[in-house]
Amino acid sequence: MNWDTGTWDSGQWDQQTPSEYFQSKPKQHTKMKRQDYYPSRIGDQVNWLDNYAVKLPIHGATLGVIAADITASVNDAKYANYVLGTWLSAVRNFSPSTTDAVDDVLTGAGTVAIVLPTFTAPALPAGVTATLPGVLTRIFALIAKMKLSPGYTEAIGTDLGIVGSQATEKAVPKFLAELLQGSGCQCVKLTFYKYTHMGVYIESRRGTGAWEFIAIDTESPYEDERPLLVAGTPEVREYRMRFWDKGTPNGDWTDVVKVTVSP
After folding, report:
1. Cα 86 from Cα 88, distance rounded (Å)
2. Whole-angstrom distance, CA of residue 46 vs CA of residue 54
3. HEC readout, 38-85
4. Is a pLDDT exceeding 90 seen at residue 1?
5. Do residues 59 and 160 lie in contact, with contact meaning Cβ atoms separated by under 8 Å?
6. Beta strand 222-224 with 257-261: parallel, antiparallel or unpaired?
7. 3-state secondary structure at position 98
8. How far apart are CA 206 and CA 235, in angstroms?
9. Do residues 119 and 91 make contact, with C-beta atoms less than 8 angstroms apart?
10. What is the rounded distance in angstroms from the CA atom of residue 211 to the CA atom of residue 239?
11. 3-state SS, residue 106
12. Cβ-Cβ contacts under 8 Å for 67 (sequence gap 6 or more)
């Protein structure tokens, strides 16, 4: 039986309040905004930190960073690289042995006393020392200062890995149409994506008629519940959208989406 999936902890011994054992204090973490140039995947973060540690000594002086701050920031990056790479990998490899040991203690068999496994952290790389908490906070703060330096250029930023990817501006909204059964006939549900805009400006055309405005909507979805032009007769409805901001439709029209609405 795996120790963390069974019912061994369903007895009365663990019904006590935490105060009867100890009161743990939650760790305080400063909320830090993730920078758009810093990767989200741990493996990519390790590579980013390695590049930063190599390139900062090359560009730091040009960007007005004194030698002592360059040395300290390089050590921060190398220590974070060690923790996220070498140390974290070793911890994850060690973890299964702890579960096996608990299983042996609780449900195993044998005639020899159990020796619990112990974790030995990998050695730090030569020249790297443990740092105070807040490695990324310090690195990001230094980067913000370097970007204000007269010597800063896009080429230096790219080499340091501190230029974020630019979000591509969406030219048109995105939407899809879905038929729903209404009380008198089918209606059309338009689920749309306005991206960073305030809303969408929606037009529709039926049969051989002209395009007509039907709605400005700031929250998806929009439901077109208009009755059929001719009661009991199916009709083709066409839809198109463009962005709407501060009282004005703007941008290009989307491609036209056609839906056949039935009684």
Report:
1. 6
2. 13
3. CCCCHHHHHHHHHHHHHHHHHHCHHHCCCHHHHHHHHHHHHHHHHHHH
4. no
5. yes
6. unpaired
7. helix
8. 7
9. yes
10. 9
11. helix
12. 61
**Whole-number Å distance between alpha carbons of 48 and 236:** 54
Phi/psi at 187 (5° precision)? -125, 170
Q: Which amino acid is at 96?
A: P
Angle among Cα 253, 254, 255 to the nearest 5 degrees reads 120
pLDDT digits (tens, 9 = 90+) for 104-123: 999 999 899 999 999 999 99
CATH 2.60.40.10 at 174-261, yes or no: yes
CA pair distance 82, 79, nearest whole angstrom: 5
**Amino acid, res. 140:** F
Calpha distance 118→99 (Å, rounded): 12
Distances 244 to 189, 212, 218, 248 between C-alpha atoms, Å: 19, 16, 9, 6
Q: Give the per-residue pLDDT at 170.
A: 81
HSE (side-chain half, CA atoms, 13 Å) at 23: 1
